[in-house]
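On clarity, I found the account of how folds are encoded harder to follow than it need be. An entry of this sort, consisting of the sequence and the corresponding backbone structure tokens, reads as follows:
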Amino acid sequence: YYISGYVPLAELFDYVTKLRSLTQGKGIPNIEFYRYEEVPSDRAETIIGQGGKNA
């Protein structure tokens, strides 16, 4: 099977670990950059407030 989608980079932390766990080690991750996109203003405020630390 092949699953494709677009996900913000901030949502991909622990992606490989979770994928391998859910697929009993058989899942093969492939992450490619697609594009830059403006961060929503409410999310930007959170990131700035935390000093940009994995927000």
